[in-house]
């Protein structure tokens, strides 16, 4: 349990404002340092062979302007690719999402540290008015990205990659989701979210990811 809780503590989370082609957006941002060279981290997030080992299998034309699709339904277009520092893609989910282009984008920025480590930043911007936000707040996407960074951490460290779908159902995985939802609640509060709205969003997010632990959630 300690390693997954350490991972939660290693990530800095911020909710902010931004823009996407469809208009004003809210953002969730995750930052952490990886004990790995920048080229290694870049390859892990851009190589189809390596992506499938920690995220999901991906198909498509993995070049600027090309389109990609992850197993599970996430898909989009590669908007920018500046090796080894910046990757930006549109990010849609489900067949109906294609009717609303320009509503969601994900950008990853990498910075080489002085000691050979890499600062990793992921910013997910979704148009204001995105349907899930009033219910779940930044946890709508933030908890999923926490799970993704946990898998990337283990992959870069050479640890065995567990089946996340199964791990999420375990007591340890459910506790990770609960604490992630609470952490995003803290980010929401810091961004000026009304306390009652934040508490309701944390409860809804926890019920979605870990329903048996929902009554243990709290935001202070």
Uncertain regions spanning at least 5 consecutive residues: none
Q: What class would the helix/strand composition place it in?
A: alpha+beta
Distance between the termini: 23 Å
Number of domains: 1
Mean of residue pLDDT values: 91
| Gross morphology | globular
CATH class: Alpha Beta
- Largest sheet properties: 9 strands, antiparallel
What is the beta-strand fraction? 25-35%
CATH domain fold name: Alpha-D-Glucose-1,6-Bisphosphate, Chain A, domain 4
Encode the helix/strand succession as letters: HEEHHEEEEEEEHHHHH
CATH architecture heading: 2-Layer Sandwich
* Number of helices, counting only DSSP H or I runs of 4 residues or more: 8
Helix fraction, binned, reads 25-40%
State the total count of DSSP E strands.
9
* CATH H level, superfamily name: START domain
* Cα gyration radius (Å): 17 Å
Domain Activator of Hsp90 ATPase homologue 1/2-like C-terminal: 35-128
Family: Belongs to the AHA1 family.
InterPro entries: ASHA1/2-like_C, START-like_dom_sf
Pfam families: AHSA1
Task: Output the keywords.
220 residues, alpha+beta, 9-stranded antiparallel β-sheet, 8 helices, globular, START-like_dom_sf
Summarize the structure.
The chain has eight helices and nine strands.
What features would you describe in this structure?
The protein has one domain (2-215): 2-Layer Sandwich (Alpha-D-Glucose-1,6-Bisphosphate, Chain A, domain 4). Strands 1, 2, 3, 4, 5, 6, 7, 8 and 9 form a 9-stranded antiparallel beta sheet that branches. The protein has 8 helices and 9 strands. The two termini are 23 Å apart. It is α+β, with helices and mostly antiparallel strands. A hairpin with a 3-residue loop joins strand 5 (74-82) and strand 6 (86-90). It has helices at residues 2-10, 38-46, 48-54, 133-136, 139-156, 164-167, 171-190, 195-209, and strands spanning 12-20, 23-34, 58-60, 67-70, 74-82, 86-90, 92-93, 104-112, 118-127.
């Amino acid at each position: 349990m300690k390693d997954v809780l350490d991972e939660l503590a290693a990530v800095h989370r911020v909710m902010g404002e931004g823009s996407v082609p469809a208009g004003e957006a809210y953002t969730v941002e995750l930052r952490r340092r990886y004990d790995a060279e920048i080229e290694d981290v870049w390859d892990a997030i851009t190589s189809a062979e390596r992506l499938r080992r920690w995220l999901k299998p991906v198909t498509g034309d993995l070049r600027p302007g090309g389109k990609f699709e992850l197993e599970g339904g996430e898909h989009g277009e590669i908007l920018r690719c500046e090796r080894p520092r910046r990757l930006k893609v549109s990010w849609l989910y489900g067949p109906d999402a294609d009717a609303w282009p320009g509503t969601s984008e994900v950008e990853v920025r990498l910075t080489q540290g002085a000691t050979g480590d890499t600062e990793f930043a992921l910013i997910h911007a979704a148009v204001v008015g995105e349907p899930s936000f009033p219910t779940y707040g930044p946890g709508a996407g933030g908890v999923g990205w926490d799970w993704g960074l946990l898998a990337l951490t283990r992959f870069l460290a050479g640890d065995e990659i567990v089946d996340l779908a199964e791990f999420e159902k375990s007591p340890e995985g459910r506790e990770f989701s609960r604490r992630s939802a609470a952490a995003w609640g803290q980010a929401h509060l810091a961004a000026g979210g009304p306390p009652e709205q934040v508490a309701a969003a944390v409860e809804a997010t926890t019920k979605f990811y870990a329903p048996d632990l929902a009554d243990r959630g709290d935001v202070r």
